[in-house]
Amino acid sequence: QGLGVDNVRSFEVVLADGSHITADACENEDMFWALRGGGGGTFGVVTAVRYQTLPSVRTIAFGLEIYLDKIEARWGTAKKEEAVRDFVDFWVRKAPTIDRRWGGYWHLKGFLSLHFRDFSGTKPFSVIDAKATLIDDVERWLAGKEWGTRTYVFRGNSGEYDGYFEARGRNKYFDASGAVRIEVHSRLIPTDCLTSRPDDAG
Fold first, then answer.
1. In this structure, how many other beta carbons lie within 10 angstroms of the beta carbon of residue 90?
2. CA contacts within 13 A on the Cβ side of 16
3. Which H helix or E strand runs over 196?
4. How far, in Å, CA of 147 to CA of 151, rounded?
5. Which of 17, 39, 105, 116 has the lowest tally of Cβ within 10 angstroms?
6. Which of 57, 5, 60, 12 is nearest to 33 (CA)?
7. Helix, strand or coil for residue 101?
């Protein structure tokens, strides 16, 4: 499991001089390291990626969207900016303690899409466990906000599914390659930065 890059087994790459190489753990290891996040993204044109695939695992989806435009219309720009800061601060402080079965993404527009997945098959796994490990904390955080009501924040809780794709509703519109232009940029932040200096990280 782990991140997507943890499951990459090799890249096929065309370099600036036109040569074609394979980069993996045994051949062109420095390029393999760089393409998996060890450096910038200007090393060559990746023409193929080989992944280790994994069996589908039970999945529970949880989504949330803060309607920043509604907050701004009701309270003004300052309140909208405060909501964004509160959202980022919550995730910076919560991230180091989130159960590792949770994964997904969030962005600064107050949107998140998370999935609780049964990787081990040994720990308790149900909507109750998903709530206890994260969703209840989100609800407690929202309860303390003037704008934390369902008028201004959409919550999308769903049931249990056989796999990630099913949890997304087999969404051909969003999941089909090239169907929607979404730019997702990941940043790996050392846990120590979040635990010892949360104010700086947020």
1. 17
2. 3
3. helix 191-196
4. 8
5. 17
6. 5
7. coil
- CA separation for the pair 147, 107 (Å, rounded): 18
- Sequence-distant (6+) residues with CB within 8 A of 90 are 138, 141
The amino acid present at 66, given as its one-letter code, is I
Tell me the CA distances in angstroms from 119 to 28, 86, 100, 153, 182, one per residue in order: 31, 31, 10, 30, 27
- In the block, which residue shows the tokens 């943890």? 6
Output the six-digit token pair for 160: 């249990």
Question: pTM here?
Answer: 0.70
Residue range 148-193, pLDDT digits in tens: 998 999 988 667 888 877 877 665 555 555 555 556 666 667 777 7
Rounded to whole angstroms, how far apart are CA atoms 158 and 116? 11
- Residues 137 and 95 sit within 8 Å (Cβ to Cβ): no
- Cβ atoms 46, 13 nearer than 8 A: yes
Residue located via tokens 């998996």: 36
Q: Which tens digit of pLDDT belongs to each residue from 18-49?
A: 999 999 999 999 999 889 876 666 788 999 99
